[in-house]
Amino acid sequence: MSNSHPFTSKPIGRSLLFALLALLIFFSSVAYLLLTPCNVISLDINPSIELETNRIDRVVSINALNADGEELLAGYTPRDRDLDEVIEDLVDRMIFKGYIAPGLQNDILITVRDTNSSEHVLDKVNTSIADYVEQRQMQVQLYAQQFTGNDKLQELAAGYQVSAGKMELIRRLLNGDPTLSIDELTTMRISDIIAYATANNIPLPVLDDMLDDLDDIYGDDRFDDIFDDDMLD
Asked: Sorting pLDDT into bands at 50, 70 and 90, what band is 69?
């Protein structure tokens, strides 16, 4: 007579199901951690590029925002998705392609979209670039900022193929000098924008502070067709 028990397979099957569900939850959590963008970082010289990173500072995506950015990234595949490694690769390409060079005023604008971890990411990128250009013996001035602007500003920046951080500088410049052209400013190097602002005593507090004071930027009706009131809501 057989001693097998026909019902013993049920607890085993139930345990196996729970184990599989636990593994599924675990791998789903890991995939979410690794693949979901958490921070958006833009780098502007004249090339404008945007990086997305996850919660462990791994680069999820790299996108060119303008033609110079496309040239900078042409043929580039990251060897390592670590943020520091990618930043060093990008600085190397900026030097190789002449966007950073001896004899130039090499200004880089670093903008991080404001999140709970943006201060950490901003400091990490700023430090990474500063340390690496020092190793390469290049003179570079870094301007770091967090961005808390609204969707309208980002849509406008996308339309002109610049980062939202650079567009904010342009807004400040237009406010200080209404004779300037937004079309011309969007094609200028960051160093030229800052040099013009300095030469003409146009304050750019956005370079030192978070970009959260958009309500007092424009009072000139000349720019209502470019920056309407809805952008400040």
From this structure: very high
Q: E-assigned strands of the chain?
A: 39-44, 48-53, 59-64, 107-113, 141-147
Task: Read off the pLDDT of residues 132-145 as tens digits, 9 standing for 90 and up.
Answer: 999 999 999 998 88
**224, burial (CB in 10 Å: exposed 0-12, middle 13-18, buried 19+):** exposed
Instruction: Compute the distance between CA of residue 223 and CA of residue 34 in angstroms, rounded to an integer.
Output: 42
Write out the H or E segment, with its range, that includes residue 28: helix 9-35
What pLDDT, on the 0 to 100 scale, is given for residue 14? 67
Strands laid side by side in the 141-147 sheet: 59-64, 48-53, 39-44, 107-113, 141-147
Q: How far apart are CA 201 and CA 207, in angstroms?
A: 14
Cα gap 155→116, rounded to integer Å: 23
The amino acid present at 154, given as its one-letter code, is: Q
CA distance 207 to 69: 22
Q: Where are the strands (E) in 90-163, listed by range?
A: 107-113, 141-147
Q: Hey, what are 125's tokens?
A: 């990128």
Give the phi and the psi of residue 106 in degrees, each rounded to 5: -95, 90
| Beta strand ranges found along 6-127 (DSSP E) | 39-44, 48-53, 59-64, 107-113
Distance CA 112, CA 122 (A): 6
CA angle 87, 89, 90 (to 5 degrees): 65
